[in-house]
Specification:
The complex is a heterodimer of chains A (486) and B (253). Chain A is built from 14 helices and 19 strands. In chain A, strands 1, 2, 4, 6, 7, 9, 11, 12, 14, 16 and 18 form an eleven-stranded mixed beta sheet that branches. Chain A has helices spanning 3-14, 36-45, 50-68, 108-117, 121-128, 137-152, 159-165, 167-173, 184-192, 216-219, 433-441, 446-457, 459-462, 467-479, and strands at residues 155-158, 195-201, 206-211, 226-232, 237-243, 254-255, 258-263, 268-275, 289-298, 304-311, 316-319, 322-325, 331-340, 345-354, 360-369, 374-383, 391-401, 406-415, 421-431. Helix content of chain A is 29%, strand content 30%. With 253 residues, chain B is of the alpha/beta class. Chain B has helices at residues 43-51, 75-81, 98-112, 120-134, 151-165, 181-194, 209-214, 233-252; strands at 3-14, 17-28, 32-36, 56-65, 68-69, 83-86, 93-97, 144-145, 169-173, 200-205, 218-223, 226-231. The longest helix of chain B has 20 residues, at 233-252. The chains are: A alpha/beta (486), B alpha/beta (253). Chain A binds chain B through residues 429, 433-435, 437-445, 448, 452-453, 456-457, 459, 486, and chain B through 51-55, 74-76, 78-80, 84-85, 87, 90-91, 93-97, 100-102, 104-106, 108-109, 112, 144, 161, 165. The structure holds adenosine-5'-diphosphate and magnesium ion. Adenosine-5'-diphosphate (ADP) is lined by residues 14-15, 17, 19, 37, 39-45 of chain B.
Chain lengths: 486, 253
């Protein structure tokens, strides 16, 4: 390796947190419980300005009164034991030290999955928290791209950093799409969010890479209460990818993230998610509760927001990426595939709120239920009187594998403008023993057969993902359904 | 001539109900056998048991393929050994394009046999050509497997698959049902083209019609889970003329 390349890599490695996916290194963990002192503690640890602290405290007070009024949502088609919010620790510094000396020490189940996904060895180590001695390919790639992004004026950093370095931008947009009082978990997140990502793309700039594709090792170290804010200024374009296919374990059971997207005139944001948090065991013990509020605002005319999600993990998922189509001629699309297996429960869907004229939305939801899983699609399409000529198309397909799982569809369509049109289509199919036997008779083993059937079923969604992730996501879907038939 | 398939005293059923009550049958490489019999006599059960459908239970007996008992093998392992079943009622696999399905299947078979994956381009052109000839239109290969196919198209699709997967032993369960005379001739033509000294066929049918075009070496009559009569092609002719009742009378007598 040429000396200067080596040097550059070393330099990058030595300041590995600068890129900002991880909070500054600390040793402390806040004592369990939530109160104003804890909020102050978090804000201080993060060296936040006064306005940010005030913002958090206000959110905390909203959350507290919601909690006192018993407004924790229970309406989702999901059942879980009550969460004791006073037993959770709301601030923990990220671990810098790797947990393991070698891959052999990592849970064999996770290693098996890495192998099946075809994740390169060095990346496996980094993902699992193994000390890495060799140079990561993606790090040098990251350096190259980082320079390029900076030259183009694209801001891509941790939200903590952005609060310090770009306070005006953050102040202008934070909480404008998902206000702290929006819902119980959004309020909690606003009060205690640990870290997250901030992206700003200046007018007319097309971001040349999938943000976070090359940074997934860092991106994988997501926090318990993440906050993401993405602003695409006029006529800009950005594609952002959250999460990764590798299985993620976490000692925190409750995850409550908030994602806000803002697209100004003619801007386009594509937000893709691959979620593979720990699902818990066959009895559902120990899985992650994933309560996420994601919302985009098509603020400007001709703006466009696209959500793509592959939801595989977590024991309970509660998530409705939504778009407010405010600008005239704005467009939003939602493509989702969600799997529930074992004891998983997923309650997902989307809301499309049409305000502007000629706004268009398209919803494609694919739910796969296996084992004792329960999958609920909850969709809402709301066309306001101002939304002249608005159009919505919703397609909602369910696939059932075996006899103990369930699929539920709860669509809600409200059209309040006579020139608007909303179409809804739904199908349910079942992979039974006969389909599987047909495939096996032709030489495919059960796993291969399910991979083929599932990727056929989810094709329209997988196609929207960045290429390299589409292949992994396809494998991930079939792996998570292993042994679920028969 | 060496035996390719030997079925010995096979007793099998489903849900505790015995359907096959002691089947003995030997098929040599290069031969085509036909099994005829009234509805419910157990023809499809025999086919499913040979292919390894997990819902069926085997109580006794063996099925040897190239001398090895295959009853303990998984269905895909039997397929990899070269056993093919054309289903009486082929299922639909929505969303999985036929071309992709067949290519995946062929490559799985090849991998199990230690062969290289097929060349995509030549496989594509071969599949298109055969689809056009057998199903009548080549676009069907881009559709989901049997998705929106008519009954007849599904049967033809089984033949298309047999041609591409080139099994050593093909069991065709009522491949002729629901086909018009032209389709029947086409199916027979493809079976005949595939016949060679290494390969064997078991044709399950109600009707004499297809046998006229295929001319099997041996014909067996299955009744109530047992082979009650075996003979050559003339046995089929006799059944055609006199019906099963005649035969059953003569068996009982
Ligand atoms: N799943 C099943 N459960 C119970 N009985 C069955 C089942 N499938 C087939 N049978 C019975 O087994 C017998 C043989 O069926 P089958 O092998 O399909 O006959 P054939 O193909 O000769 O018409 C019939 O009496 C049929 O009713
Ligand atoms: Mg039958």
């Amino acid at each position: 390796m040429p000396e200067e390349v080596q040097k550059e890599i070393e330099e990058v490695l030595s300041r590995d947190y600068e890129w900002g996916f991880v909070a500054p290194i600390e040793e402390e963990v806040a004592p369990p419980g939530i109160n104003e002192d804890i909020i102050r503690y978090i804000s201080e640890k993060k060296e936040e300005p006064e306005w940010m602290l005030e913002w958090r405290l206000k959110a905390y007070r909203i959350w507290k009164s919601m909690w006192e009024r018993g407004e924790e949502p229970h309406w989702a088609y999901a059942h879980y034991p009550p969460i004791d919010y006073q037993s959770i620790s709301y601030y923990a510094a990220p671990k810098k030290r790797p947990k393991y000396g070698s891959l052999e020490e990592v849970d064999p189940e996770i290693r098996r999955m890495f192998e099946k996904l075809g994740i390169p060895l060095e990346e496996q180590k980094a993902l699992a928290g193994v000390a890495v001695d060799a140079v990561l390919d993606s790090v040098s790639v990251a350096t190259t791209y980082r320079k390029k992004l900076e030259e183009m004026g694209i801001i891509f950093m941790s939200i903590s950093e952005a609060i310090r370095e770009h306070p005006d931008l953050v102040k202008k947009y934070l909480g404008t799409v998902v206000p702290p009082g929006d819902n119980f978990f959004a309020a909690l997140n606003a009060a205690v969010f640990s870290d997250g990502t901030f992206v700003y793309v200046p007018p007319g700039v097309k971001c040349p890479i999938e943000l976070s594709t090359y940074f997934r090792i860092n991106a994988a170290r997501t926090g318990q209460f993440e906050r993401t804010l993405i602003v695409a200024d006029k006529n800009s374009y950005v594609s952002y990818l959250e999460g990764c296919t590798a299985p993620m374990r976490d000692e925190h059971q409750l995850h409550a993230a908030v994602v806000e997207l803002i697209a100004l005139d003619g801007a386009e944001i594509k937000y893709s998610t691959v979620q593979n948090w720990w699902t818990g065991d066959e009895e559902g013990r120990g899985g992650i509760y994933n309560f996420v509020t994601k919302r985009g605002l098509c603020a400007g005319k001709n703006s466009r927001i696209m959500w793509v999600q592959v939801e595989v993990g977590s024991v309970i998922t509660w998530k409705y990426p939504s778009t407010i189509l405010k600008g005239d001629n704005s467009v939003s699309e939602f493509y989702s595939v969600a799997i529930t297996n074992k004891r998983q429960q997923a309650d997902t869907g989307t809301k499309m709120i049409h305000i502007g004229k000629n706004t268009r939305s398209r919803i494609v939801s694919k739910g796969i239920s296996a084992g004792y899983g329960n999958n609920t699609y909850r969709g809402m399409v709301k066309i306001l009187p101002s939304a002249e000529n608005a159009r919505n198309y919703t397609q909602c397909d369910s696939m059932l594998i075996g006899n103990n799982c369930g699929a539920h569809t709860v669509p809600s369509i409200e059209v309040r403008n006579p020139t608007a049109v909303s179409e809804h289509e739904a199908t349910t199919s079942r992979i039974g023993e006969d389909i599987l036997f047909y495939c096996r008779q032709r030489g495919l083993d059960e796993e291969k057969a399910i991979e083929l059937i599932i990727s056929g079923f989810a094709k329209e969604v997988l196609r929207q993902l960045p290429m390299e992730f589409a292949v992994e996501a396809r494998k991930l879907l079939s792996i998570s359904l292993e042994g679920s038939v028969g | 001539m060496k035996p390719l398939v030997e079925i010995r005293n096979l007793r099998a059923g489903i849900d505790g109900k015995e359907i096959l009550k002691g089947i003995n049958l030997t098929i040599n490489s290069g031969e085509t056998h036909a099994i005829m019999g009234p509805n419910g006599s157990g023809k499809s059960t025999l086919a499913q048991v040979i292919a390894g459908h997990p819902a069926y239970e085997v109580y006794e007996g063996e099925v040897l393929f190239e001398g090895e008992n295959i009853l303990e093998l998984e269905p895909e392992e039997r397929a990899q050994k070269g056993i093919f079943l054309a289903f009486q009622a082929p299922v639909e696999i929505p969303g999985v394009p036929l071309l992709e399905f067949l290519k995946t299947a062929l490559n799985e078979l090849r991998e199990a046999r230690g062969q290289e994956p097929v060349d995509t381009m030549s496989f594509l052109s071969k599949t298109r050509e055969l689809a056009k000839e057998i199903i009548g239109k080549e676009e069907v290969i881009y559709r989901g497997v049997n998705e929106g196919f008519s009954g007849g198209e599904r049967k033809r699709n089984e033949i298309l698959q047999m041609r591409l997967l080139e099994p050593k032993f093909a069991v065709l369960d009522e491949i002729d049902s629901g086909l018009d005379i032209d389709a029947l001739k086409l199916v027979a033509k493809h079976i005949n083209e595939m016949r060679n000294p290494e390969r064997a066929f078991l044709l399950i049918t109600h009707y004499y019609r297809i046998l006229e075009h295929v001319k099997p070496e041996k014909v067996h009559i299955l009744y109530d889970g047992k082979i009650v009569r075996s003979g050559d092609y003339n046995l089929a002719l006799e059944v055609e003329e006199k019906g099963y009742d005649w035969l059953l009378e003569s068996v009982k007598a």
